[in-house]
Amino acid sequence: MIWPVPSKRSFSLTKPLLFAGLCLFLGGCRPEPPKLTSDPKQNFYLQHVGPVLKENCYRCHAGMNRKGGFRMDSRSTLLAGGKDGIAVVPGDPEKSRILHVVRRENAWGKPMPPDGPLTEGEIAAIEQWIREGAVMPEAERR
Ligand code: HEC
Questions:
Q1: Residue nearest to ligand 1 atom 16, measured at CA
Q2: I want to staple 72 with a disulfide (CB 3.0 to 4.6 A). Which of 31, 32, 49, 61 is the partner?
Q3: Ligand 1 atom 17: the closest Cα is on which residue?
């Protein structure tokens, strides 16, 4: 039996080119670093909170998706919360439903995200962000 031997050339070029093409197609292999501002509190959201919410929550709570009547892609909807009322009280993490549901405290609602917990670091970032006033851009870029 004779095995077809692929030419070296096709191996050395085709794969990297395909891979590069796929990366371009997917809009880049790495997420774009957030564009920072002159406000450290705004930057804390852009670097440590926004990416966590986008990655773990937006598919159910942004744009057309409003599970529980709750949208998180603008500051006003994020503060307003959903069918169970206010989600974020700036300056007061312990009154903020969003923090309790990510801590998976059932008394405050269904645990979020439903399919598994955020890391402790991510939860701590959300807590600090609320304590410092929940500063974020009014309309979030998706
Ligand atoms: C797979 C979909 C899904 C994901 C992902 C998800 N949620 Fe939810 N969320 C829901 C559903 C469904 C409800 C309504 C639950 C209920 O019936 O009370 C809800 C409700 C909520 C509420 C309460 C709204 C209200 O007033 O009733 C908060 C706060 C919340 N989610 C925060 C989050 C946060 C923060 C994340 C990310 C860390 C997240 N969710 C990720 C599906 C999701």
A1: 68
A2: 61
A3: 68
Pocket lined around ligand 1, Cβ cut-off 6 Å: 56-57, 59-61, 67-68, 70, 81-85, 87, 97-98, 101-102, 109-110, 112-114, 118
pTM of the model: 0.82
What does the pLDDT read at residue 31? Answer: 65
Cα-based distances in Å from 74 to 14, 80, 110 = 43, 10, 22
Examine the pLDDT at 7 and tell me if it is beyond 60.
no
Chain-centroid distance, C-alpha 109: 20
Mean pLDDT of all residues in 36-57: 96
Tell me whether residue 104 is in a domain. yes
- Which residue is listed with tokens 């007061």? 92
Q: How far is the CA of 5 from the centre of ligand 1 (A)?
A: 54
Indicate which residue's Cα is closest to atom 43 of ligand 1: 60
CA distance 44 to 126: 10
For residue 17, tell me if it sits in a domain.
no
CB 134 within 8 A of CB 41: no
Per-residue pLDDT reduced to its tens digit, 83-136: 999 999 999 999 999 999 999 999 999 999 999 999 999 999 999 999 999 999
Rounded distance from Cα 113 to ligand 1 centre (Å): 7
Domain of 78? Answer: 40-131
In a domain, 102, yes or no: yes
How many domains does the chain contain in total?
Answer: 1
